[in-house]
Specification:
CATH superfamily of the largest domain: Metal-dependent hydrolases
Number of strands: 23
Helix content: 25-40%
Number of helices: 10
Shape: globular
């Protein structure tokens, strides 16, 4: 057994401390007073200004460590991506496949199954973003990949899968009966890359949609007489949001937070290959993506994911938007975990995974534990890559 002694602990819901977190075999055994730590166990004491929080949970990770899941949909890619994000404080990732052909999609599903079976650290499921999207709202997704689902697609997507599977689709591109079939199979259906009207969007939620992908981006907007998907998302379900302060204006983030709160709105990185690496460009479906001044774009200026870590998203939510620290941390830990049913992630409590991140007073990552093991080679948000 080991113990982490911290003056400030965020447990997934709120702050407490001073407290000792006891853990062994990759799980939290319990929390106790500092004076009650059993004798003879390994103890690490954090600095009094540092915050101990659950490892971050990111439900939209397209790449990292210099590689993209789309370019090489294998278990080895997932291991590399998860490892890169772990060193940025994110100990649970939902690898995300951007719209692609059926063969690539099947390879990605097989890779995620292998990663789950082999217990590759940090890989907690699969997110299929597309290809059942609105052409007018496809963003960086390749036009040739956009389609509507047929019987074979539905068979592939409803097949048994032992881990959580998110599917982002445009509700106007998929029949409500097909959305219901996906939901009945246990798939977590999110609306995104959609030009749906408010009523169309609500019909999708009624059929089984549970949330929205990167709120405000690539979706029909909220206007006075046409609330669009944004209006539906603010009213129903949960939603991820990219808080790099490039994708969404700080005032808009603040409005969404005021409407939804930290139990419905969660942070995502939408990270690409540049995350946790020093690469400044990559290929996506034949398009060259470049990193310039912290922004990833194609040649035409279209945003192509984000050069962002979850730790940086938390920092920007607090310092750039004004979201309270406890709420921002919840939006990066317990709320995304709850959104996909990861009951052992995103919290520090007896029985939860021993995944921890240590932040200093500037909200910079100082240390990370995954499955009870302290990781080396931590990349803080102040590193040259960020």
């Amino acid at each position: 057994m080991k113990a982490l002694l911290a003056t400030r602990v965020f447990d997934g819901s709120g702050f407490g401390g001073p407290v000792a977190v006891l853990f062994e075999h990759g799980r939290v055994v319990g929390l106790t007073g500092m004076a009650d730590v059993p004798e003879g166990i390994a103890i690490e004491r954090l600095d009094g200004t540092e915050i101990l929080a659950p490892g971050f949970v990111d439900l939209q990770v397209n790449g990292g460590g210099g590689v993209m899941f789309n370019a090489a949909p294998t278990a080895a890619t997932l291991a590399r991506v998860a490892e890169a994000h772990a060193r940025l404080g994110t100990t649970a990732v939902m690898p995300t496949l951007i719209s692609s052909d059926r063969g690539t999609r099947r390879a990605a599903i097989a890779a995620a199954r292998t990663a789950w079976a082999e217990k590759i650290p940090g890989v907690v499921g699969l997110h299929l973003e597309g290809p059942f999207l609105a052409p007018a709202r496809r963003g960086i997704h390749p036009a040739e990949a956009i389609t509507t689902p047929d019987a074979q697609d539905l068979a592939d997507l409803t097949a048994e899968f032992a881990a959580p599977v998110m599917i982002t689709l445009a509700p106007e591109m998929v029949a409500p009966t097909d959305i219901a079939a996906l939901a009945d199979a246990g798939r977590l259906v999110f609306a995104g890359h959609s030009d749906a009207g408010f009523e169309q969007a609500l019909a999708g939620f009624d059929a089984g949609i549970v949330g929205s992908t990167h709120l405000f981006n690539a979706m029909s907007q909220l206007t006075g007489r046409a609330p669009g998907l944004v209006g539906a998302a603010l009213s129903r379900g949960m939603a991820g949001i990219i808080v790099d302060l490039l994708h969404v204006h700080p005032a808009t983030v603040a409005l969404a937070f005021t409407r939804m709160g930290a139990d419905r709105l969660f942070l995502v990185s939408d990270a690409m290959a540049t995350a946790g690496s020093d690469v400044t460009g990559f290929d996506l479906a034949g398009r060259t993506i470049r990193l310039v001044d912290g922004k990833l774009t194609g040649a035409d200026g279209t945003l192509a994911g984000a050069h962002l870590s979850m730790a940086e998203a938390v920092r920007r939510a607090v310092q750039g938007v004004g979201i309270p620290l406890a709420a921002a941390l919840r939006m990066a830990t317990r709320t995304p975990a709850d959104a996909v049913g990861l009951a052992q992630h995103g919290r520090i409590a007896a029985g939860s995974r021993a995944d921890f991140v240590v932040l200093d007073s500037a909200l910079t990552v100082r240390a990370v534990w995954r499955d009870g093991e302290k990781l080396a080679g931590i990349r803080s948000t102040g590193s040259p890559a960020w």
